[in-house]
Design brief:
heterodimer, A: 220 residues, 12 helices, B: alpha/beta, globular
C-alpha cells in the first residue's frame, strides 16, 4: 500500500551467506568438539531451579542470559585450548590458521559485558529522550531481527558449525540478542553477515563513549 | 438482541468439516464419580445435559490420546488441542480429562496452569465434587523444580494437561514440557496461535511432523492463510483438535474514518520528512531506533487528533446510561522534529492521558490504568516498578467494576454474594475506564455481569496488534454477559492509522484463518476502515499533487521571459 511504503525505512543488514574462507574448525586439532560439549552440558533445570515462582517471562529472560554466558564461556575456552595447542604446535601446517583465529580473542571482552546489556537497556528505557538511548534501543531491535533471520536460516545448514551454534538459540531466543550475535560473529568472522554485527556494536559503543561514558564502566 | 450465551457455543470444528467431524465411541467421562456425594448435580448435568460441549471435549481428547494409531511427536507423544473460546468450560474439561485419564490408565495425570489460576482451578474441582487424588496440579512457574523431583523419583504421568497453552509461545515452556515423563499432551487454549511460528509448534505436536517441514510447506504456498485453514481442517479431520466458540455478543458500529485536518497532515509530513533526513545519515542501530521513534510520534500525533471526537462519543454513551471502556495507547513524546514556539522539542501527552485530562476538565471522574514500562514483564530489575503500577491499576479497576464488595482484615477485596451464592449488584463508582492496549487481557469483570447494570460501550483506537485488539473486544462479550456490548473503532486517514489498520487486518485475518467466528465482524470492520482511510488518503494526495502541479505551472509561467513581457504589457501594469 502506497501510504505505508512512503515512510522512511532503515537500511537492510547484509544477508548473504557467502564465506570468505572455510569456517575454522578446531575439532580435529583439539580432538574434541568444545561447542557440542557445551550444548550437551547446558543444565536443563538450572534457571527454573534458581528462580522458581518468577513469572514465565522473567524465567525466560534469565534463561536467555545463562545461554549467553555459556556461549561466551565456550568461545573463551576454545581460544584458551587453541592457545595451548598453538604453543605446542607452532610448525603444524594449520598453525597459521590458528594464529589468525586467535587474533579474534582480543575482541571477546569480559563476560560482564553480558550483564552490562541489561543496565544499558534499562537506562535507555528510562532516558528515552536522550539521543544515545535511541541507538541503544535501536541496536537491540536490529539484533532481534537479525537473530531471527539467522534462526530461520539455521535449518538449511546441515552439519555446519555456524548453524549448530544458532540452533542452540531455539530454546532461548535471547532477550538481549546482541550478546549471542557478537559471539557468533566473532566465531564465524568469515561469514559475510558477521562483520556488520561488530560494526553495529562499535557504532553504539562510540556514541555511548562520546556522550555517556559512565555507562560502559567495567566492560572495556 | 438475542443472547448467544443462552445456547451452547458454535461447534467450529463441525462447521469446518461440514458435519463430518469425528465422533467418540467410548464415554470416558462416565467413569468419573464425585468424591462428595452431595455435590453430584453439576457433574451429572455435564454428563447428560443439553450442552454436550464438555462431555464431547473430554471424550474426543481421550479417544485420540489413547488411540495407538494417533500421530506421535519426536519424543513419541500423542497430543490433542482443545481450542475452545472463552467461557466454554475449558477448566472443567481439563479437570475431568485428568480424572478420566488417570482412571483409564491407572497412572496419575499432571495438570499445569499459571500460579494465579491455581485457586480458581481448585474451586472448580470442588464445584464438581471431585478431590485431587490421581491429579498433580502444578503451577507452570514451578515446573522446573517439580520435574527435577519427579525425575528423581522416576514418576510417570498418564497425560500432561496444559491449561492456558498459549504460554507455549515461550521457548522455556516448550523445553520444560518436553522433559515431562509422560506419553501424552493435552492442550487447552482459546488463543493458541498468534502467528505462524506458534501455529507450526502446535501443528508439529498434533501431527508429529517436524516444525521446519511444516513451515517450509506453508511458506511455499501462494496463499498462506488458505494453507493454514487447510492444515487446521486436516488436523481436525484426523481427530487431533476440537474448537467451540461463542459468537460476539453485541453490535459493531460501521466504519467511518475521520478526515485528517490540514494542520495534522502537515505535522505528519514534517515528521516523515524530518525523520527521513535523520535516518539518511545514521548508522544501522540508530536507524532502527529512529524508525521506532517515528512510529511512536506518528501514532501519538494521530491519536491525539481523535480526543475531541472520542470525548463526544463517550458523553453520548454516558447519556444513554452506558458504561464506557476506552482502549488505546499512552505514549508521551518529545518530538525530534517539531518545535514549540520557544524552540524546545514539542511535547505531547500520550493519548490516554490526553483523554483523561479532557474527561476530567468536564468534571467526569474516570478510572485510568497506567502502562507498564517496556520490557518489565521480562526484566527482573523492573519488576518492583511494575508491581507498584499493578497495585494502583487494581485500585482503579475496583472503582469501575460493578458488584458489591467488602474488604477483609488483610485489605483484600472480595465479592459479596447473596443467599443463592450469586454476586450482589451494586453500581460502580466510575462509569468510564481508560485502558492501555498492553493491558487489555486479564480483566474478567468489565462486562455487564448484572441485568440491572448499564450496558457497556467499547471505544478503540487502531492497534497494530490483533491479539491485544481481540483481548480488548473480549472484555465486553463474555460468558456471563447480561447484555450486548457496542464496539466502535475510531480511526482517521493518517499514515499512522493506515499502517496500524493494515497490520491489524493481517493479524485478524490470521486469527480468522484458524477458525475463530468471533473475529469475523472485526475482520470486515478493519478491512472497511482501511479501505475508506486509504481511498480518502489517495484522493487527498491526488488533490495535493494536482495543486502542486498547477502551482509549478504558474511559477514556470511567471519565470518565463515571454510571459513576463506579455504580463508587463497588460493594462494597469506600470512600465
Amino acid at each position: 500500500m502506497d501510504t505505508i511504503d512512503h515512510l522512511p525505512k532503515a537500511a537492510e543488514p547484509v544477508s548473504s551467506t557467502y564465506l570468505a574462507s572455510p569456517v575454522f574448525d578446531s575439532t580435529k586439532l583439539l580432538k574434541r568438539d568444545v561447542w557440542q560439549e557445551a550444548f550437551n552440558q547446558l543444565d536443563t533445570f538450572a534457571e527454573s531451579n534458581a528462580n522458581p515462582g518468577l513469572p514465565l517471562e522473567q524465567q525466560q529472560c534469565l534463561r536467555d542470559l545463562s545461554v549467553d554466558r555459556v556461549l561466551h564461556t565456550t568461545l573463551a575456552r576454545e581460544f584458551m585450548l587453541l592457545e595451548t595447542w598453538f604453543r605446542k604446535n607452532r610448525r603444524h601446517p594449520e598453525s597459521n590458521n590458528v594464529a589468525a583465529f586467535l587474533q579474534r580473542k582480543q575482541q571477546l571482552g569480559p563476560i560482564e559485558w553480558i550483564d552490562q546489556q541489561e543496565l544499558l537497556y534499562v537506562w535507555a528505557l528510562r532516558n528515552e529522550r536522550e539521543e544515545v538511548a535511541t541507538s541503544i534501543l535501536g541496536w537491540r531491535l536490529l539484533c532481534q531481527e537479525f537473530a531471527d533471520s539467522l534462526l530461520a536460516w539455521s535449518p538449511e545448514t546441515d552439519g555446519d558449525l555456524r548453524g549448530l551454534v544458532i540452533r542452540s538459540w531455539q530454546d532461548s531466543h535471547g532477550f538481549y540478542p546482541q550478546n549471542r550475535l557478537r559471539i557468533w560473529a566473532l566465531r564465524f568472522l568469515e561469514d559475510a553477515r558477521a562483520p556488520q554485527v561488530l560494526v553495529w556494536e562499535m557504532a553504539v559503543n562510540q556514541v555511548i563513549l562520546d556522550t555517556r561514558p559512565e555507562l560502559l564502566i567495567g566492560t572495556r | 438482541m438475542d443472547n448467544p450465551f443462552d445456547r451452547p457455543p458454535i461447534n467450529v470444528s463441525q462447521a469446518l468439516l461440514a458435519g463430518s467431524v469425528r465422533r467418540w465411541t467410548k464415554d470416558y467421562l462416565a467413569a468419573v464419580s464425585p468424591a462428595t456425594p452431595d455435590k453430584t448435580r453439576l457433574l451429572e448435568s455435564l454428563r447428560t445435559g443439553e450442552d454436550p460441549t464438555i462431555r464431547d471435549g473430554v471424550n474426543l481428547a481421550l479417544s485420540h490420546l489413547l488411540d495407538p494409531a494417533s500421530p506421535k511427536d519426536g519424543s513419541g507423544r500423542a497430543a490433542f488441542l482443545v481450542h475452545d473460546g472463552t467461557g466454554t468450560g475449558k477448566s472443567f474439561q481439563a479437570i475431568l480429562a485428568a480424572k478420566a485419564m488417570a482412571h483409564e490408565t491407572g497412572e496419575p495425570a499432571l495438570l499445569i496452569t499459571r500460579a494465579n489460576l491455581l485457586s480458581p482451578l481448585q474451586r472448580d474441582l470442588d464445584r464438581l465434587g471431585l478431590d485431587s487424588s490421581q491429579i498433580e496440579i502444578v503451577a507452570i512457574e514451578e515446573l522446573g523444580p517439580f520435574l527435577k523431583e519427579a525425575q528423581g523419583q522416576r514418576q510417570r504421568f498418564s497425560v500432561t494437561i496444559v491449561d492456558e497453552a498459549q504460554d507455549c509461545r515461550l521457548p522455556e515452556v516448550r523445553r520444560l514440557l518436553d522433559k515431562v515423563p509422560s506419553g501424552r499432551l493435552l492442550f487447552f487454549s482459546a488463543t493458541p496461535f498468534h502467528n505462524i511460528n506458534e501455529f507450526c509448534y502446535f501443528n508439529s505436536k498434533l501431527t508429529g511432523r517436524p516444525i521446519q517441514e511444516i513451515k517450509s510447506e506453508l511458506t511455499s504456498k501462494p496463499d498462506l492463510l488458505a494453507a493454514v485453514s487447510d492444515q487446521i481442517k486436516q488436523i481436525t479431520a484426523a481427530g487431533g483438535m476440537v474448537q467451540r466458540e461463542f459468537p460476539f455478543y453485541g453490535s459493531v458500529l460501521p466504519a467511518g474514518t475521520i478526515p485528517l485536518r490540514a494542520e495534522s497532515q502537515s505535522v505528519e509530513t514534517q515528521l516523515i520528512d524530518g525523520y527521513a533526513r535523520l535516518i539518511r545519515g545514521a548508522d544501522l542501530p540508530r536507524q532502527a531506533g529512529l524508525v521506532r521513534d517515528l512510529d511512536s510520534e506518528m501514532n501519538t500525533a494521530s491519536d491525539n487528533t481523535k480526543v475531541a471526537t472520542i470525548f463526544e462519543r463517550t458523553l453520548e454513551a454516558l447519556s444513554q446510561n452506558k458504561k464506557v471502556i476506552l482502549f488505546g495507547d499512552d505514549v508521551p513524546t518529545a518530538s525530534r522534529i517539531l518545535r514549540d514556539a520557544d524552540g524546545l522539542p514539542k511535547e505531547s501527552a500520550g493519548f490516554l492521558s490526553a483523554m483523561k485530562a479532557a474527561i476530567a476538565a468536564h468534571g467526569i471522574e474516570c478510572s485510568f490504568l497506567r502502562t507498564f514500562p517496556d520490557g518489565s514483564e521480562s526484566v527482573p530489575v523492573l519488576a518492583r516498578e511494575r508491581a507498584e503500577i499493578e497495585l494502583t491499576n487494581a485500585e482503579q479497576m475496583a472503582l469501575f467494576v460493578d458488584g458489591a464488595c467488602k474488604t477483609n482484615e488483610s485489605g483484600q477485596r472480595f465479592e459479596v454474594r447473596g443467599p443463592d451464592n450469586r454476586p450482589i449488584y451494586a453500581p460502580s463508582l466510575t462509569k468510564v475506564i481508560l485502558i492501555p492496549y498492553s493491558q487489555a487481557a486479564g480483566w474478567p469483570e468489565l462486562n455487564q455481569r448484572f441485568s440491572a447494570a448499564p450496558e457497556v460501550s467499547i471505544i478503540l483506537t487502531p492497534s497494530a496488534n490483533a491479539d491485544q485488539f481481540m483481548q480488548a473486544i473480549g472484555r465486553g462479550s463474555r460468558r456471563n454477559s447480561q447484555g450486548p456490548t457496542d464496539v466502535q473503532l475510531v480511526a482517521n486517514d493518517s499514515r499512522a492509522d493506515c499502517r496500524r489498520l493494515s497490520q491489524l487486518l493481517r493479524g485478524l485475518q490470521f486469527i480468522a484463518a484458524t477458525g475463530s467466528p468471533a473475529v469475523a465482524p472485526f475482520v470486515s470492520l478493519t478491512a472497511d476502515f482501511l479501505e475508506k482511510a486509504s481511498s480518502q488518503r489517495a484522493l487527498r494526495d491526488q488533490r495535493l499533487i494536482q495543486l502542486q502541479k498547477s502551482q509549478r505551472q504558474r511559477s514556470a509561467r511567471i519565470l518565463d521571459p515571454n510571459f513576463l513581457r506579455l504580463a508587463s504589457r497588460q493594462p494597469g501594469v506600470r512600465q
